[in-house]
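We were asked to recover a plausible sequence for a given structure. The inputs and outputs are reproduced exactly as logged, with field labels preserved.

PROBLEM: sequence recovery
POSITIONS: 622
GIVEN STRUCTURE:
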């Protein structure tokens, strides 16, 4: 152990190194403080900017959401007008009544309740009493009204439900009303619910009527959230909208900034540690050098030779210490034998340093040809950087390395320095990610096939393969809305097979099914690609002809009628012939685009065709 000298006897270089070390740490801490202060200020300013953006998006969300709710409540009010009349009709059957829950609708008066639409079920007494009490209140008026659920019906999962009431008034008296239930979330477009906003519907006094359960406010803290008035009904829409995109943007910015700060801090600390090691080494070397000078004055030339040998050994050790983080091999450039190595290389290859020095460089490679390729590149370019190679591990483990080579002089010999970075875990992780990606792609393909099959079952008629009633009405309603926005003309036709009951009664239902399939096949062949055909029930069909005038639609349906009438098909060996009657109607330059109105007119034209002897097509102008 080298004795420590008193401060006054230490070399000036050692004292300067100690002072420089202290100053370096002070500067490093100041840099870290400034950098992290900047990080905190950057995060604060970013949060302020994103908060303003959040408020802007929240106001826009409220504007779009209130408009969507008003539109759907307005459409619901128009459709409910069809039920003010007790007489059933095709237009009334085609009414969607969205967004009423289950499409269920009841008629309630002072004595009884009657269900008009939906899966048969009894309206709860509390809901009936609420309608009757509301009819008796002085605030009743002939407009669509939304009421909260009765207290006894506040079950889990029902916090979004509202009771819809539309009074049916006779002059100044409203003896009965239509009622049903709707969910607030279905009044909004699906795109507006992607970020799972917290929202609620309140009356004008600030009392919460319904919410999606994510907001904890009432009339007392209403000023803490954003609100918008609904035009269709006297209600408020309140929301606490938090965009996931903005949150994700802030999180990514925060993570990136913190990550960069951490990396820079780590690099700075690593640099300071390295500087400290160098300065401590300088201090120790200076102290040792000063001590050696004192000893040299008292020793002979043999001690001087030993000191030179010690300095050479220290120089060799220092060369290896500088690359201690990676495996290092010093290889003879001619024989390719290993002259020396460090502990990291020995651990990576599963050998001791003594065993490793008995090996040659090609023997360490799993594929010796790979070693020859790297040596050829080294000879051509004088340096090899970051080349992947699989090495032989003495413990029979898979070992991948990022290999670099360069020439150097080692103990007056021409040698090659080989550095090895272990990337085994990274290669294995990449393979696992590739396997998981392939498994995910297979699962997604299977899911898409299943979804397609379920969609086919839900939208097509089992017998004819045409669109079923529900899918046709939904598709036609959306097509009409698009035509209204584009100011296009849309034609609708209602078709009824003539004397179809006689076929069933005389030849049986199998022959009737064959007749329906025969007719559906002709529809698919004769109609344009843009048209849609649907089976409305029994022998009744409907056609939707986008961007088609009334005259064009009449010609298409009449050509179809002539083609059907001219054909003969066989069922159980019996030759049969089909005819049909049809009614055609078309919208007029953006007017009469309501589906129920068009179907009602087409149905009227159909009855005119039947009255004219059947097997004909009648048109009607809205």
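RECOVERED SEQUENCE:
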């Amino acid at each position: 152990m080298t004795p420590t000298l008193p401060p006054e006897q230490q070399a000036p270089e050692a004292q300067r190194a100690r002072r420089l070390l202290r100053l370096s740490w002070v500067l490093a801490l100041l840099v870290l403080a400034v950098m992290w202060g900047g990080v905190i200020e950057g995060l604060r300013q970013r949060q302020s900017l994103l908060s303003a953006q959040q408020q802007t998006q929240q106001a826009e969300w409220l504007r779009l959401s209130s408009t969507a709710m008003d539109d759907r409540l307005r459409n619901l009010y128009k459709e409910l007008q069809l039920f003010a009349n007790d007489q059933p009709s095709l237009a009334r059957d085609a009414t969607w009544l969205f967004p009423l829950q289950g499409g269920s609708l009841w008629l309630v008066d002072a004595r009884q309740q009657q269900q008009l639409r939906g899966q048969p079920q009894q309206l709860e007494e509390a809901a009936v009493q609420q309608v009757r009490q509301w009819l008796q209140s002085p605030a009743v008026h002939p407009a669509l009204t939304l009421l909260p659920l009765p207290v006894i019906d506040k079950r889990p999962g029902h916090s979004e439900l509202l009771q819809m009431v539309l009074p049916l008034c006779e002059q100044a008296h409203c003896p009965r009303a239509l009622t049903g239930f709707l969910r607030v979330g279905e009044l909004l477009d699906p795109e507006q619910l992607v970020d799972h906003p917290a929202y609620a519907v309140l009356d004008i006094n600030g009392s919460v009527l319904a919410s999606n359960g994510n907001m904890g406010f009432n009339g007392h803290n209403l000023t803490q959230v954003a609100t918008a008035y609904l035009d269709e009904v006297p209600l408020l829409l309140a929301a606490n909208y938090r965009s996931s995109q903005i949150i994700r943007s802030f999180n990514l910015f925060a993570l990136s900034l913190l990550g960069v700060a951490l990396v820079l801090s780590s690099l700075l600390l690593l640099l300071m540690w390295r500087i400290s090691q160098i300065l401590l080494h300088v201090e120790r070397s200076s102290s040792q050098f000063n001590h050696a000078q004192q000893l040299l004055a008292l020793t002979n030339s043999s001690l001087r030779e030993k000191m030179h040998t010690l300095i050479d050994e220290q120089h060799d050790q220092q060369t290896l210490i500088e690359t201690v983080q990676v495996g290092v091999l010093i290889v003879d450039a001619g024989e390719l034998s290993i002259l020396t190595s460090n502990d990291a290389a020995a651990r990576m290859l599963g050998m001791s340093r003594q065993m490793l020095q008995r090996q040659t460089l090609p023997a360490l490679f799993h594929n010796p040809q790979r070693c020859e390729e790297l040596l050829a590149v080294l000879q051509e370019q004088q340096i090899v950087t970051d080349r992947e190679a699989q090495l032989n591990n003495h413990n029979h483990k898979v070992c991948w390395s990022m290999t670099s080579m360069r020439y150097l002089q080692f103990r007056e010999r021409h040698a090659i320095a080989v550095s090895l970075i272990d990337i085994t875990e990274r290669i294995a992780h990449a393979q696992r990610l590739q396997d998981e990606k392939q498994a995910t792609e297979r699962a997604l393909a299977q899911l898409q096939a299943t979804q397609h099959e379920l969609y086919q079952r839900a939208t097509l008629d089992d017998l004819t393969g045409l669109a079923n009633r529900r899918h046709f009405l939904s598709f036609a309603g959306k097509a009409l809305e698009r035509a209204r926005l584009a100011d296009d003309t849309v034609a609708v036709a209602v078709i009824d097979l003539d004397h179809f009951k006689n076929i069933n009664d005389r030849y049986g239902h199998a022959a009737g099914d064959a007749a329906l399939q025969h007719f559906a096949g002709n529809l698919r062949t004769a109609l344009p690609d843009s048209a849609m055909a649907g089976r409305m029930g029994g022998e009744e069909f409907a056609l939707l002809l986008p961007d088609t005038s009334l005259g064009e639609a009449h010609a298409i349906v009449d050509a179809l009628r002539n083609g059907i009438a001219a054909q003969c098909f066989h069922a159980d060996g019996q030759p049969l012939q089909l005819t049909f009657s049809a009614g055609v109607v078309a919208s007029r330059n953006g007017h009469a685009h309501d589906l129920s109105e068009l179907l009602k007119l087409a149905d009227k034209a159909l009855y005119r065709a039947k009255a004219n002897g059947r097997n004909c097509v009648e048109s009607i102008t809205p």
